[in-house]
């Protein structure tokens, strides 16, 4: 009478096949996740650029916003803060959602995002720069991005570090940043 079940060799072959499939699938999964994170960072910067135009129009005595907190809900919290019950103000314009408002403190989709207004003549913010950088280089993303009032998203394809690149309106226009090909 024969034994029923699998031999050790048969089990080892199945395990080897599973390991080969995992070795192929996991890197592709990581690349797909990074690609989604890149798209989210670019989308966030596009939203910020659009919101800045509206903010400048709504609050001409302020100009562009100083931070994402002003542009958004007025606080960087997790879970995200909702817009104030009293309505939008220059301190909490509610032009971006609470997740993006807090993206400097609580990263959004693997990217840290920040925005800084630059004071010009008469104490009005005449320009701004917004930037996005991967939380963990080569795990959550590899590229860094920036945008200034010309609303052109620029990318640094040569980035090799985690975090914010520390861009200002002038450095966003210079190498290694180049306009994002859309």
What do these coordinates show?
With 182 residues, the chain is of the alpha+beta class. The chain has one domain. The chain is built from 3 helices and 5 strands. A 5-stranded antiparallel sheet has the order 1-2-3-4-5, with helices on one face. The longest helix is centred in the N-terminal third of the chain and has 51 residues, at 8-58. The radius of gyration is 23 Å and the shape is elongated. The relative contact order is 0.14. The model has no long low-confidence stretch (mean pLDDT 93).
Architecture blueprint of SSEs:
Elements: H1 8-58, H2 68-71, H3 98-101, E1 111-119, E2 125-134, E3 144-147, E4 154-156, E5 178-179
Antiparallel strand pairs: 1-2, 2-3, 3-4, 4-5
Q: What is the structural class?
A: alpha+beta
Strand count? 5
Shape, per Cα inertia axes: elongated
Radius of gyration: 23 Å
Order of adjacent strands in the largest pleated sheet: 1-2-3-4-5
Return the string of H and E elements.
HHHEEEEE
Distance between the termini: 69 Å
Task: Work out the helix count.
Answer: 3
**Low-confidence runs (pLDDT<50, min 5 residues)?**
none
**Average residue pLDDT:** 93
Task: Briefly say what this structure is.
With 182 residues, the chain is an alpha+beta fold. It has helices spanning 8-58, 68-71, 98-101; strands at residues 111-119, 125-134, 144-147, 154-156, 178-179.
Features:
182 residues, alpha+beta, five-stranded antiparallel β-sheet, 3 helices, elongated
